[in-house]
Amino acid sequence: MPKKRAASSDSDSDSGPEDRGPAKKNFKQGASGAAKKSSSGGASGGNSTANSLGGEDPSWHLGKNKHVVVRSFKGQTLIDIREYYVDKNSMETKPGKKGISLTCEQYQKLKSIIDEVDHALP
Q1: Which residue from 25, 33, 65, 118 has the highest number of Cβ atoms inside 10 Å of its Cβ?
Q2: What is the spatial distance between Cα 21 and Cα 41, in angstroms, rounded to a whole number?
Q3: pLDDT for 55-73, tens place per residue?
Q4: Which residues contact residue 25 at a Cβ distance below 8 angstroms, ignoring those fewer than 6 apart?
Q5: Residue 18's closest CA among 100, 67, 99, 88?
Q6: How far apart are CA 118 and CA 115, in angstroms?
Q7: How high is the pLDDT of residue 68?
Q8: Low-confidence residues of the chain: pLDDT under 70
Q9: What is the 3-state secondary structure (H, E, C) of the chain?
């Protein structure tokens, strides 16, 4: 007999992994540095040296706890667009479940169709 799932919360926002234990650290580079939020926290346009999260990986704040981070995972460079949350225990800013990681090829494809996406917007 299949197990029943627990009822999900009514909240639309992802406040983080409250139903699980601590996340496993899968990679060494930026694992602890990317979790700390910097005091600047402002949005930056094309500044390639921006770092809105205060870690080693380049990152940009998009607003409403959303960030773009360029990171390396298992030897592959990824562009991570993700919603972050503040851990209630440690008061650190950490990546949430809501987001997407694009490979460089996927990111280049997205860039190539961005004008079409813009024209499709109301």
Answers
A1: 65
A2: 28
A3: 889 999 999 999 999 999 9
A4: 31, 32
A5: 88
A6: 5
A7: 96
A8: 1-50
A9: CCCCCCCCCCCCCCCCCCCCCCCCCCCCCCCCHHHCCCCCCCCCCCCCCCECCCCCCCEEEEECCEEEEEEEECCEEEEEEEEEEECCCCCCEEEEEEEEEEEHHHHHHHHHHHHHHHHHCC
